[in-house]
C-alpha cells in the first residue's frame, strides 16, 4: 500500500529530490529544509513532516530509508522527483526558491492511489 511506506518519504523527496553529478557546485538550495507533505485524496496517511539536508544539489534523508529517490531541480528551481519502494511508486513536481517551495505529488500501487501537495521551508543554509 502507499499508506505510510511510500507516501512518507515521498513528501520529503517531492520537495527536495535532486540528481547531481560528481563535483557539482553548491546550489542555492543547499541547507536544512522542513518539508510538510499532505494527502488530499486517497487513503494514505494525512500528513508527514520531515527534516532534510541538501548538499551540493543532492538531497539527504535524515532517517532509515528503504526506498530509491531520483530527480532533479533546474537552475530556476523547478523540481521533478520519482520515488520507488518495491512495487510502489510516487512522483512529484513543484518549485523551490532559496527559502521555500511547494508543489503536488501523486502515488499509485496496485492497492491504493493517493495524491496531495507539499510545502517546504528552509531552516538553515549550508
Descriptive keywords:
single chain; 126 residues; mainly beta; eight-stranded antiparallel beta sheet; globular
Write the layout of secondary structure elements.
Elements: H1 3-16, E1 31-41, E2 47-55, E3 58-61, E4 68-73, E5 78-85, E6 88-96, E7 100-108, E8 113-125
Antiparallel strand pairs: 1-2, 1-8, 2-3, 4-5, 5-6, 6-7, 7-8
Can you offer a commentary on this structure?
The chain is built from 1 helix and 8 strands. The chain is mainly beta and 126 residues long. The radius of gyration is 13 Å and the shape is globular.
Largest sheet: 8 strands, antiparallel
Radius of gyration computed on alpha carbons: 13 Å
Q: How far from one another are the termini? A: 36 Å
Category by helix and strand content: mainly beta
How much helical structure, as a percent, in the residues? 10-25%
Q: What oligomeric state do the depicted chains represent?
A: single chain
Contiguous uncertain segments of 5+ residues:
14-23
What string, H for helix and E for strand, traces the elements in order?
Answer: HEEEEEEEE
Strand order of the largest sheet: 3-2-1-8-7-6-5-4
Shape estimate: globular
Helix count from the secondary structure assignment? 1
Please state roughly what percent of the residues sit in beta strands, choosing from under 5%, 5-15%, 15-25%, 25-35%, 35-45% or over 45%: over 45%
Number of strands: 8
What would the average pLDDT be, to the nearest integer? 75
Amino acid at each position: 500500500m502507499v499508506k505510510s511506506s511510500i507516501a512518507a518519504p515521498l513528501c520529503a523527496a517531492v520537495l527536495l529530490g535532486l540528481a547531481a553529478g560528481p563535483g557539482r557546485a553548491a546550489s542555492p538550495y543547499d541547507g536544512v529544509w522542513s518539508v510538510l507533505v499532505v494527502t488530499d485524496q486517497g487513503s494514505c496517511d494525512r500528513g508527514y513532516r520531515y527534516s532534510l539536508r541538501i548538499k551540493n544539489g543532492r538531497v539527504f534523508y535524515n532517517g532509515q530509508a528503504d526506498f530509491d529517490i531520483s530527480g532533479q531541480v533546474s537552475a530556476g528551481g523547478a523540481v521533478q522527483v520519482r520515488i520507488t519502494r518495491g512495487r510502489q511508486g510516487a512522483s512529484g513536481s513543484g518549485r523551490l526558491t532559496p527559502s521555500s517551495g511547494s508543489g503536488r505529488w501523486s502515488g499509485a500501487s496496485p492497492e491504493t492511489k493517493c495524491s496531495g501537495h507539499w510545502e517546504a521551508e528552509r531552516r538553515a543554509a549550508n
